[in-house]
Write a structure and sequence with these properties.
single chain; 213 residues; alpha+beta; Jelly Rolls; 6-stranded antiparallel β-sheet
Length: 213
Amino acid sequence: MRNVLFLSFLLVSFSSVVNAEVIGLDIEANGSLLNPASQATQSDYTLGWEFSLGEDVVLTALGLWDQGADGLNMPQTVSLWRVNGDLLASAQVYDSAIAVASASEQGQWLFTDVTDIFLSAGNYVIGADRLEDSLDAVQKGSTGISTDPRLAWIEARYAGLDKFGFPGETASGSQYFGPNLMLRSVSVPEPGTLGILGVSLAGLWMARRRETK
């Protein structure tokens, strides 16, 4: 019986590992800070970045950088688009959102769950609306980032002054790390793996029956 329970535990654990959620990008080396309220020309705008996915994944949450890990000054909207501008998902990130640690000691990530969305391999753009009176800073020009192996950062994007929406403008030579996303694999355990575990469980069950007769 113990062997059966152990193999059942392995099967559940394997499935959990396959479906683990991970953040798309993290900051490892601190850069300068961009604070909308401190700019000479204050305005509303959307900042973000374009990225590519090397394989299919599932989007599970959208998030935002929390400088100082002390919460947000006000809620911010984070959105994900296809590279052609088609909106795929949007979420409000609040001060009470799910906190995820960062490799940077300067802050953390806050995430809001969204309905699972299948993302096929290809290019996407993520952005966060920045209000002119917000005190929530964005990491700008960080000298070191890490990404999930399936994701590649391409370039910074923005939507222009006094404009919310798809960040269609490119910011060559710049980096804006405010919005983020959380992903999980669409993979399932290989049929062969499940088959081996199933046969093992059946064999142990049959052996147990013989012992009890």
